[in-house]
Amino acid sequence: MTTPKKRLVGELVRRELRQRYLGSLSGGAWALLQPLAQLAIYGYVFGRIFSARLPQQEFGELAFLAFLAIGLWPWNAFAESLSRACTTITDNAGLLGKVAIPRFLLVLAPVAAAFMLQVAGFAAVLLVLYLGGWFEPRWQALLTLPLFVLLALFTLGLAWLFSALTVFVRDIAHGLPQALLLMFFLTPVLYPRSLVPETLLPLADANPLALFVGLFRQSVLGVGSYGPGDWLLAVVLTLASLAAGYLVFQRLAPHFEDFQ
Amino acid sequence: MSTVLVSAQGIGKHYPLVSRRDARMRALGRLLFTRRAPDGVDVLKPLDLEIRRGESFGIVGENGAGKSTLLKLVTGVLTPSVGSIQVNGSIGALLELGAGFHPEFSGRDNLRMAAALAGLDARAVGDWLPQIIEFADIGQYIDEPIKHYSSGMVVRLGFAVVAALKPDLLITDEVLAVGDESFQKKCIAWIEEYLAGGGTLMLVSHGMYHVQKLCRQALWLRQGEVAARGDVFEVTQAYLAYHERRQRQQDDSTAAQSDSPYRIVHYSIDGAEDCQHIVLDERRHIDIDVEMEARDNKAPVLLFGIAHGNGLPIYGVSSDMDQVRPLALSAHRYRFRFELDLGALLPGEYLLKLHPMDSQGLRLFATHEVAVVIRGETREMGAVRLPHQWRE
Asked: What ipTM does the predicted assembly reach?
């Protein structure tokens, strides 16, 4: 990307971040308060009320809270990016109708902002989990950084796709949050893959997010049996998502204004 | 640096029809899987356009004629449905009274964004800011969200941003109509300076005065088609004449003018029959010839006056005040001829009004208006030059 484009993306991301905390007293502090509050709630509900336990022969003494948290934050980054990005073009109709701006850059901002916030939250949560003795740090946990990059790019491809389609079919803006909620329960975030009934396993494995969540857990917690082939698959899925999203977006972008 | 700034070949635009619910889906399918454009209505028929550096180009036409669409195509906000367009240079555009500001953010934040859109870094905004705040006359409001601004403030800020960017091509769409008088003057002064410095302008306005003052060339769009293009005075006069014709057709069909006992049959100014618009440069004398009908066979009275373009009356007098009687052509046809010296008027836009009156000069029967543009440059203020003398 050229320097002016970088500046523009930087400014768009900055604006996206500001927009979320605009007018709030503590400003950016919410970025850390929110995930910690969320962690406390999950700890209370699943640890105290449900007393959730993981199957022992597979996970040993691993705390359910750590298992949940490591899967939940990547999912949050994905779902939040997508639902925000999906209405980017329609939300910015005022700007797009007056300024000739490369439209595909506009979709970058909500994805980048959501990932920045969720990664920061993820780091805070890891620290708390470590201080609380819920998980042991391992060097492989550093793999979460490239994983987050992959997941962000994978999400960006879908964000391009859905933001372009939403201009034409507004129903997507209403349907997507519901679809994401359904997908949340179909993805092994709240439960391990081993609890999925055998007949439904092919369906569960066809879900790209299950793969990403599994890779995150393996990196941080050392659970699961993913190999280099799965990493390669994640890269292929990311490239496919980027290519499909970009193609559809660039094909439809010249006509956005006619349907806004 | 290329001399051709904008070059468009056969650009046209049609908008798809999206009122029916399935139309959007069908259009989406077509765009994704075929090369055909969706069905739609033409808002701009294919036209060629070439704008060179240093040109100033006015676009006139009625509402819905395609003026804004053309500007949007040049700006790149819209993609042409047919044809192609090349722009070699930076564009600063104020389309539909805004610069794409976000209402929730402060003026300062929006300026940062505008700078980023123009490819400048955030530090440049710091250098800009005092200059922009001063030009927009916006003071401490710069840190308030745009949604709390008055519409005039938004336009002022938008114009200030564009002015600070000094684009190769300035595109404005009816911007001058919103600001108050003093800001309009400031804008016009800025645009004049910008043009004198080699800037290029595309202007859409319903105010012929602005078009004539700022542009040297004009394009008249009528229902998406080019009705005329060329020298600004020829095009704007043709456009105004077209309006007068339409107005008169409406008048003729609604008000039965011939019912009034006194009326102006026809008039001419400097020999031009029933002209609606005159432009004066050096010469400030006009000859007016009015033929009137009086059905009661009594010599009628003619009242004429001059008003400023904003409606303020400047001078008026009637033939009976001057104790002048018309020449009787027949029992009910009369003719007034007079010479009018407009030398005292400062450059600007004025209205010459002619009214037929009854023989006592008591009742006024109709109004005929002639737009008068006085060209020239002066730093004097007001509408008329009063005789004065500075003493030693």
From this structure: 0.81
